[in-house]
Specification:
alpha+beta, Alpha-D-Glucose-1,6-Bisphosphate, Chain A, domain 4, 7-stranded antiparallel beta sheet, 3 helices
Length: 146
């Protein structure tokens, strides 16, 4: 029997950052910064096209252990500094899974919280695979923003 994702089986991750919410939000719009954190673990970025505007179609070609892992999608919503929504297509995510990034200030001055929600993944296994990747990306972002 194959485990499949249902409407309630979504990936939700939270990460706190020691920077203002505006800086955190802006990092996701800047291709130079994105290229520094969109590479979890031993993954390398081979090519990044990141036109961060509503309707903009992006490409993130990753290389892991010498094997290419192409990703692409389209920006659906950019509402600064609160939310970014985009589709995420790849071999493991399927077609038109959706990633929502919600940005919020925390109670501690100068800190912010990013909540990443990845929906429409094709299976429970895909959720597990993306949990590791997105966690690595969020941790890399913390290092880049220091």
């Amino acid at each position: 029997m194959t485990n499949t994702a249902t409407a309630v089986e979504v990936l939700v991750l939270k990460h706190a950052y020691r920077c203002p919410v505006e800086k955190l939000f802006a990092a996701w719009l800047d291709p130079e910064i994105v290229s520094q954190f969109m590479c979890p673990g031993e993954v390398k970025i081979a090519r990044l096209v990141w036109p961060a505007k509503v309707g903009g179609e992006f490409i993130v070609d990753m290389i892991h252990n010498g094997k290419p892992h192409p990703h692409n999608g389209r920006f659906l919503e950019i509402d600064g500094p609160r939310r970014i929504v985009f589709t995420w297509n790849s071999e493991h995510a399927g077609k038109d899974s959706q990633v929502t990034l919600d940005f919020a200030e925390t109670e501690t001055r100068g800190e912010s919280l990013l909540t990443l929600t990845h929906e429409r993944l094709p299976s429970v296994e895909a959720i597990g695979q993306h949990r590791g990747g997105w966690n690595g990306i969020m941790e890399n972002l913390a290092t880049v923003l220091k």
